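I hope you will forgive my troubling you with a question about protein structure. Could you please explain, in whatever detail you think fit, how the C-alpha cells follow from the sequence? Thank you for your consideration; the sequence and its C-alpha cells are set out here.
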Amino acid sequence: MNFSVLNMSGEEVQVMELPSSIFEAKINRDLMHQALVRQLANARQGTHKAQGRAEVSYSSAKIYRQKGTGNARHGSRRAPIFVGGGVAHGPKVHKYIKNMPRKMRRAALRSALSVKAADGDIILLDDISMDTPKTKTAVSILDSLAGDNSALILLAERNENVEKAFCNVVDAKTLRASYLNIRDLLGYDKLIMPLSALESLESFLAIGDSAWVVTDDSGEEE
C-alpha cells in the first residue's frame, strides 16, 4: 500500500510503501472490541463502596418494643429501609482487570491500523519538529494535515517542544509510538505518523513470533 509522505506544510515530498504485515492485516473487529473493552476495564479504579447495615454508624438499640405498637417488627435503624441505614447489595471495592495475551493485543493493533490505512486516515510525515513550543504552530500543522478532524500524533521518542505545543489543542494528542494502544487509535479520526515513529511501530508490530494466528476447529490456519 503506497502512501504519500508530507512535510509539516502538507506538501508531498515522496511516496513510500507501508509494510503489508501491519497495514494490510486481516481485520478482526471482534478482537479489536475485546482489546478495547479490556483497556477500558483496566482503567477503572474500582474504589466504589457503599456501607452495609453492619458498617453504618448508627445505634443498634431496638427502635421500639416488639408488640403493641401496630407497626412491623424492627430491631435496628441500620436496616436498609430506613433513612440513614445501610445499603442492600451496594457496590463493593473490587478489581475490573481483564487479561489478554500480548499476541492478541498486537493483532488488534494491526487490525486497527489496517482499518485506518484502508480508510485513508493515516498521514505520513517526513519529520515533525519545533524550535519552541507554540500552540499556534501546532494548530497550523493540524489545519494543513488533518483539517477539522481530530488527530493522534505519534512520536518516536520524547520531544518536549512538540508535546507542549499540542497539549493545549482540544482535538489532538501526542503519544509515543511504543505506547500505541487501541483506545487512542480508535478515538481519533486521523493518525499522524512521522517516519521515525513508523520505524518504532515496525520494531514491535512486525509479523514474526509475535503474530497471532487464527485457527479453525481442525487446527488449520484460516
The beta strands are 2-6, 12-17, 122-125, 151-155, 172-176, 190-194. The mean pLDDT is 89.
